[in-house]
Every structure is written in C-alpha cells, then in structure tokens.
Specification:
alpha/beta, Spore Coat Polysaccharide Biosynthesis Protein SpsA, Chain A, 12 strands, 30% helix, 14% strand
Length: 372
C-alpha cells in the first residue's frame, strides 16, 4: 500500500498528541434521512416552493433531487458492514431531522441526534448535507479520532486503523472522476467540483497573504503545497476533531457560508468533503493514500456490471459507495431492488443496532445534548 506524503507535519502543533488518544475507540458518525416520510416531505416541498417563488439560480446541480433523500436501506447495510469489518469501533452517532429508522433498536452504543440539538434553531430546516455535516465535530463526547460516513458508504474489508490514521493526521484518497477544469465556480458543476475550485482559491489567498504581509500566523500552509484539480473519493472520512476545530477557527467565513444554505448550492459548496481535506493536506495533517474502492451509481447503465464487480471484490475493498442517482425512479424500481438484493446477499447478518427477531425495539435513542 503506497502512501504519498503531501506536506510535512507541523511540529509545533497545538493539537493533543494522537499517542495520548490512540487507545480511545474511534467513533462513527452518519447522516441519515428518510425521504419517504410524509411530514418531512411536506416540509421539504414547502421550502422548495418558497425558494422557487424567489430564486432557484443558486441551487446546485442535483442539489434537490429524489435520489439525494431516498432511503433504500443503505444505513442498515452500512451498519452491518461496520460491525463485520470494524467491530472495535466506538460509539455510533446518527444525525437526523427528527426521524429514526423503524428497524433501529434502543442501545447504549447508538445515539440519534436531532438537527435541533446540533444546529441553531434559526438555521433550520436545512436539507443540505454539506450544511449539516459542518457541525459534526461539535457533537458532545465525540472521540478525537472519528469516521464520518454518508449512509451510502460502506467499509468493504477488515479495517486496519493504520490505513486511515497516522500520528496527528489521517489519510485521504482521490476519486476516479475526471479532473476539475477551470478555476472559477460554475453554475452547472456539481458541488464537489466547485468545492475543489473554492478550496484552491482560499488556500492560495491565504498563502499569498502570509507571503506578502509577512505576518506571523498560528499555522501557515506548506510553501510546497500544490493544488490537485480532482475530487476526493466517496469514502468513510477519517477525521480529527481538534483539526476540525482549528479549521473552523481559521476559515470561519466558509463555515458561515455553507451553514446558510437550505438546499445544496453551487456558490456555497460543501467544505467537509473537500476544503477540510485540502487544508489538512496543506498543513501537514493529511497524506494521500491509494485505497482500494468501488463507486457505483444506481442510475448508470453499467449498474449491474458494477454490482457484479462488487460481489467479486467484496472483502478486499477498503470501501465502496452506492450512490442513488435514479432520480426519476419510484421505490419499486428494479435498479433499487437489485441494490438491496445484492447488499442483503453480501451482508445477511443483522447488526446489533437492528431490532431483534421478536420485533421489540424503541426509537427513544436520543441522548440529551446542549441546545445551541
């Protein structure tokens, strides 16, 4: 497994040495939504109609489509994969909008966190995962090292922590998507493509400011850091809470921007899945690695071929992602059924987070958290 350093660690780091945290279990954070829930759909439609009455020009490509919110049981199978391949994980947090999967059972190892417990009430509701995920590192009690996953991301082989974290840092990997062209944010680009452009602009501006002003700053980018015009893979995101706290302090304007969205926008792109990773690369808290992975788009003509590849590679992939791009489909669409059948065949054993065979369960999983 080749690891390519991208920036030298800052030896005068103010972070808590990871060696002091190396024995702490690594927590898991998911975002989850049930787009079929009637009350939730009514709320979403009301906000979408209000936006349409004013301006929709800022909504990103695929920013408010059915596939972004549909629940195809991905979380259930992602938790099964987590238990199979990373049983020594820490606490599981599931961030939701007042919802709970009907198969989830009460457990001291799982906490449901309502948006209202994490996000200021004046900023709600939001249907933009890029907005919601920007608050994750503020979850009370969250471990220093943690994994953040969307519910359509799965571990695909036994997890070796050293493939994801190093002392005071974490590894990141590129996607297989084409290079991002151009330097300015574009209305017809995906949020991730624009996020790449935004990250380049911000980091270049910071480097220029430090160079020309000759200021002494707490932490400056590595002068040898170079922007790579690619998007990052749809992977479990290894994170360090203290790094996120520092990044929010260093780039508060970006967090303010992304936290102002209701739906995903092209001009305020997600920052957790790009900017945070590039900031960490530029400041020595991340390194590149070649993770074995597979990306499957359910709306792609090659979906069946990709699912067959998943079957043959399962157990040998660091991770895989099954992205719901069937935005024109209903819940009974054969493409979605095939995904569930494939996942059930690969991951047939219920996790400890699922309702027991007798059907007894409770949705009262939410721990009280401080109000913002």
């Amino acid at each position: 497994m080749s690891r390519i350093p991208h920036a030298s660690p800052d030896l005068h780091s103010t972070l808590m040495p990871l060696s002091k945290k190396s024995n702490e279990p690594i927590d898991i954070v998911y975002l989850w939504v049930n787009g079929n829930d009637g009350a939730w759909r009514a709320k979403r439609e009301k906000l979408a109609k209000r936006l349409s009455a004013s301006d929709t020009s800022s909504v990103a490509k695929f920013g408010n489509v059915e596939g972004r919110y549909r629940d195809n049981d991905e979380l259930r199978f992602s938790l099964r994969a987590l238990e199979k391949f990373f049983p020594e994980h820490g606490h599981i947090y599931i961030v939701t909008d007042g919802q709970a999967p009907d198969w989830l059972r009460a457990s001291e190892h799982v906490t449901l966190i309502d948006h209202r417990q994490l996000i200021p009430h004046a900023a709600l509701p939001t249907f933009d995962s890029g907005n919601i995920e920007s608050y994750i590192h503020h979850i009370p009690g969250l471990s220093e090292r943690y994994f953040y996953l969307n519910d359509d991301v799965f571990f695909g082989a036994p997890v070796c922590v050293d493939d994801w974290f190093f002392d005071n840092g974490f590894y990141v990997s590129w996607s297989d998507e084409p290079e991002v062209q151009g330097h300015q944010l574009q209305t017809d680009s995906t949020s991730l493509e624009n996020a790449s452009r935004l990250s380049k602009q911000w980091l270049q501006a910071k480097s220029n400011h430090v160079l020309h002003q000759q200021e002494v700053v707490d932490r400056s980018p590595d002068p040898n850091y170079q922007h790579t015009p690619r998007t990052f893979s749809h992977s479990p995101r290894p994170m360090l809470k203290s790094v996120l706290v520092e990044i929010e302090r260093d780039a508060p304007e970006l967090f303010v921007q992304v936290r102002s969205t209701v739906f995903r926008t092209w001009n305020k792109p997600t920052i957790i899945s790009d900017f945070v990773l590039r900031w960490a690369l530029a400041h020595g808290f991340a390194k590149l690695i070649d993770h074995s992975h597979l990306y499957i788009a359910t709306g792609d003509a090659q979906e069946r071929h990709s699912l067959e590849a998943l079957k043959s590679l399962f157990g040998r992939l660091h991770f895989f992602c099954i992205n719901d791009t069937t935005d024109d489909a209903d819940d009974g669409d054969p493409r979605l059924l095939e995904v569930r059948q494939t996942l059930n065949a690969l991951l047939p054993d219920p996790s400890d987070a699922e309702v027991s065979a007798d059907g007894v369960h409770s949705n009262s999983l939410t721990r009280p958290l401080p109000k913002l």
